[in-house]
Amino acid sequence: MTITMILMTICATTLVYAAPLIFTALGGAFSEHSGVINVGLEGIMIVGAFSSAVFTLQFSTVFGGLTPWIALLVGGLFGALFSLLHALATVTLRANHIISGTVLNLLAPALCVFLTRVLYSGKGQTPVINQSIGNFTFPGLAQIPVIGPILFTKTSLVAYAAVLVGIISWYVLYKTRFGLRLRSVGENPAAADTLGINVSRYRYIGVMLSGLLGGIGGAVMAQSITLNFSAATISGQGFMALAAMIFGKWHPIGATGAAIFFGLAQSLPIIGGYIPILAGVNSVWFQIAPYAITIIILVIFLGKAVAPAADGENYIKSH
Amino acid sequence: MNKQQSSGLIIAILSVAAGLLVGGVVMLVFGYSPIQNYSNLFNGAFGDIYSIGETLRNATPLILTALGFSIASKAGFFNIGGSGQLLVGWFGAIVFALHFKNLPGILLILGAILAGMLLGGFWSWLAGFLRAYFGTSEVITTIMLNYIALYFVNFAIKRWLAPKGSDSSANIVPKASLRTPFLEQITNHSTFHWGFFIALVLVIVMWWYLKRSKTGFEIKAVGLNEQAARYAGMNTKQTIMWAMLLSGLLAGLAGAVDGLGNYQNISVSNALPDIGFNGMAVALLANGHPIGIIFAAILFSALQIGGLSISVYSTTPTEIVNIVIASIIFFVGVRFLFEQLLNHRLLKKHALMKERLEK
Fold it and tell me: Could you give phi then psi for residue A136, rounded to 5 degrees?
């Protein structure tokens, strides 16, 4: 293979694996900036993957090639609905955020595999979807010398969409009134409250945005990688997205970058065989890398409060 | 039983009832019979001596991981790493049992259990060490360590333990197994093994430890108020690491006991073992009380074992029992709801009655 071909394969594979992580990590950022820790991202992704797979199987004859894209939104919608449970538990019913997030992770696989068995005559997995998100070549951009073939030929369109959502998320969180209020609720809910900001409403919105984006993330997994739904469709990606968000220091752009880096780590075992230097390295190191790096990053930033100040704290309004 | 414990018991019972109710409603919605399924579940879990053996065997690692989770939470830490610690414990025990198979039986078993415990303990201690010296959130580090454990153990099994083309290690020699003909006979050939009694002993040891020992007291003190504990002259860093180490030793023991008693080998796995998370659920339901953990573990184990016979006698998917378990923990988590519903009145009345009775 030529250098260009190798780089093209690395970029494309990296982006395919990064896309679900980017969406979900951005979702995590919204939730945590509103002050609600969300370790339930894994569960939310499962719901997104399941609902999108079912949608594609049901409606592919109606919407044709557009189906997987609509399915992403369906996954997001159901993810948001599912995350409502987390918001209800943590914001309204003052549950511990970790316990509630764990409930999402316990409930999602149980519920989704249960429904899969109900819908598909007792089988634990859905049939393979017949419309999926394949690769995409950007017209025009692909003609640019060197960069064109590497970045814009036969690549993952949904990953570019994810990066765009990352930039939008940064703008929303740091440049709009809504973002400022959402962050104020996560930093100092009592102060926000005295300024007339409805803490509960903003926290609900933060959690549901994490449900929306996490659901889309899960749907991307089902629509572009596994191509069906089973208990194994989402296996740790939600936790990896959580790690990406922390690695990115809770910042949308940082989270996006970290997710791309983790995507690279995930794709290396697959493409490592083509790259002479990496061919000898055992794939286990690539599998472990994202998690080990996250721990190291946390240790390096020791003592620096990077998480929102009131992250994980329930706000109890005094009467 | 003090007031806090009795209100914990009421909430646990209400949560279980509410969780079973949710499961029943889900079954009704999808056209399955809750009554038929719940009675099949009960029979599958407790119907005969064989089922009871299976239920108790399945409860064993749940008791131990729950004990591990609760000791860390007594010190104020959320050890989500039970799954990873259990997995490395299982791995350590099997490796020891395979490698030293020429040792006499009792030494072989003790060595294998110790190897598993130490690996599990080390895995958890790492998170405690990072927490004590770098302030790194143990929630995040234990999650990350879970996946590192999963991928490393898978790699190690394929590389060193499994024959070419296989995904499982060889079986351990019979003398390393915790199963015995005696226990198998009295439970009609179930997989019931010595591990359950090891778990019971540890429940008592931990109960005593937390109530009576100096370091047990220090763990609770750090959990209640780390700064106050430091002012009182306790070495909080040491206590944090000690609590996390203990927690991991117990989870590692769970893995070792399950590996030596139940599986007899170790296989490559796609996902982290559920037992870690279910053990956490057990500890939450029991509110960290050692004796409560026995009952909560048997309850969840019964749901799982009984759940298997749900799908034997009907078309209802077995996953329904996991929906019930998740719902129970949801209700435990939102105890505030119950406290509001009961409006403290019922709880107060209950405590008052208790007081009078005790007089």
Answer: -140, 135
B344 Cβ contact partners less than 8 Å away, ≥ 6 residues apart: none
Tokens of B77: 């830490």
DSSP state string for B314-347: SS--TTHHHHHHHHHHHHHHTHHHHHHHHTTHHH
Mean pLDDT, each 10-residue run in order, chain A (319 residues): 80 92 97 95 97 94 90 97 96 92 95 95 90 83 81 87 97 96 94 93 97 98 94 90 89 94 82 70 83 85 69 81
Task: Give A218: exposed, middle or buried? Use CB within 10 Å, 0-12, 13-18, 19+.
Answer: buried
Residues of A whose CB is below 8 A from B139: 37, 39, 98
What part of B 77-106 touches A (C-beta under 8 Å)? Answer: 78, 80
What global pTM score does this model have? Answer: 0.90
**Residue B43 belongs to a domain:** no
Q: Do B322 and A232 touch (CB under 8 A)?
A: no
| CATH number for the segment(s) A3-301 | 1.10.3470
- The three-class DSSP label of residue B267 is strand
Per-residue pLDDT tens over the stretch B283-338: 999 988 999 999 999 999 999 999 998 988 888 999 999 999 999 999 998 887 77
| CA–CA separation, A31 and B137 (whole Å) | 18
Question: Is B333 part of any domain?
Answer: no
Contact A238, A211 (CB under 8 A): no
Please report whether residue B39 resides in a domain: no
**Residue B26 forms contact with A (CB below 8 Å):** yes
Which one of B150, B271, B333 has the shortest CB-CB distance to A232?
B271
Q: Which of B270, B147, B138 is nearest to A288 (CA)?
A: B147
- Dihedral sign, CA of B340, B289, A85, B300? negative
What ipTM was predicted for this assembly? 0.90
- Please tell me which of the candidates A100, A103, A110 has its beta carbon nearest to residue B319: A110
Confidence of residue B1 (pLDDT cuts 50, 70, 90): low
Q: Which helix (H) or strand (E) holds B358?
A: helix B345-358
Q: Could you list the residue range(s) of the whole structural domain that residue B125 is in?
A: 61-312
The C-alpha atoms of residue A170 and residue A28 are separated, in whole angstroms, by 13
Scan residues 155-214 of B and list those with Cβ closer than 8 Å to A.
155
Which neighbouring-strand residues pair with B179?
Answer: none
Contacts of B254 (CB under 8 A, 6+ apart): B60, B61, B62, B63, B64, B65, B68, B82, B86, B89, B120, B275, B279
Measured CA distances, B238 to B118, B125, B227 (Å): 18, 11, 14
Any idea which residue has 């996006």 for tokens?
A256
Cβ–Cβ under 8 Å, residues B64 and B201: no
Domain boundaries, chain A: 3-301
Residue B359 has pLDDT above 70, yes or no: no
Longest dimension (CA), chain B: 70
Are the Cβ atoms of A288 and B326 closer than 8 angstroms?
Answer: no
Residue B112 lies in a domain: yes
Nearest to A99 among B145, B272, B284 (CB): B284
CATH code, domain carrying B118:
1.10.3470
The count of structural domains within chain B is 1
